[in-house]
Specification:
Structural class: mainly alpha
Shape: elongated
Oligomer: single chain
Number of strands: 3
Number of helices: 11
Radius of gyration: 22 Å
Order of helices and strands: HHHHHHHHHEHEEH
Strand order of the largest sheet: 1-3-2
Length: about 270
């Protein structure tokens, strides 16, 4: 069953590898060409500026959505539409084993590749982490990024199992994954009470205290400046809290997929 699954999905896994490793390779190439993080965040032209713009846009944060849409959603729905799954079920392979093999193999690939990308990205960013702050790349670093990749994949599998139509499953997965990410962004703001500091206008105290943290609001008047932020040391507690919630949602989605496949799918 593992060999069959590998042959069936090897093209998709190759595309995943190309995307993740290509994204990681940009940072390796940038470092080799002298576009280190220190250089990039001060760059005004050339390749270093392109890397800086890419960091600021953070397009890679959309990758979990694409994984859910193009890898997770069709995993079951396409086979149900084409009725190819029934051949496996009549060859002594149970439904649970059939889905387990697919989920474990593709899920492991998603987790491994997303973790590699995250490790390379954080290695490249580390020299400026004290100045820019890890919160700058929060959604593309730590344990949150791999967690979202797995969640979108699992959500796609669950939606595809229930809906059974590939196009509809892909659309629902896209909306659902995006809604979950936005919802977690809102929830994240309440993981801890933000800190507010103030100082006389023109003083550098406010900037120094907020450096490296996640700034939520700031302002200044004729006599005083203030900033509300989450301190830099909250990065990892926030990461593990959010990843735990996302992984719980992942397990729920997979449980739904397996239950529906066994009880409801005909």
């Amino acid at each position: 069953m593992i060999w069959v699954t590998w042959r069936q999905h090897r093209a998709g896994m190759a595309v995943l590898a190309a995307v993740f490793l290509g994204a990681a390779g940009i940072f390796l190439l940038a470092d080799a060409l002298g576009a280190t993080a220190q250089v990039v965040f001060d760059a005004q032209s050339g390749f270093a500026e392109l890397v800086r713009i890419g960091e600021q846009i953070g397009a890679i944060r959309l990758l979990p959505l694409l994984i859910g849409v193009f890898v997770g959603a069709p995993l079951v729905s396409r086979e149900v539409e084409q009725r190819t799954c029934r051949y496996s079920w009549t060859q002594g392979v149970s439904r649970i084993r059939w889905l387990s093999t697919k989920v474990l193999l593709l899920g492991a690939v998603v987790l491994l590749l997303s973790a590699v990308y995250t490790a390379v990205h954080m290695w490249w960013f580390e020299p400026v982490a004290g100045q820019q702050g890890w919160f700058t790349i929060y959604n593309q670093a730590g344990v949150v990024f791999p967690a979202y990749c797995l969640f979108s994949f699992a959500l796609g599998v669950a939606v595809g199992t229930v809906v059974k139509q590939s196009v509809a499953a892909m659309a629902i997965t896209l909306v659902g994954s995006a809604a979950a990410m936005i919802g977690m962004w809102v929830l994240r703001r309440g993981f801890a009470e933000p800190v507010t500091v103030s100082a006389p206008a023109g003083s550098s105290t406010v900037d120094e205290m907020a450096q490296g943290g996640h700034i939520m609001s700031f302002g200044s008047g004729a006599e005083i400046s203030y900033v509300t932020f989450h301190p830099a040391e909250r990065f990892w507690p926030f990461q593990f809290t959010e990843a735990s919630i996302v992984l719980a949602l992942t397990l729920f989605a997979l449980a739904l997929a397996f239950w529906w496949l066994r009880r409801k799918l005909s």
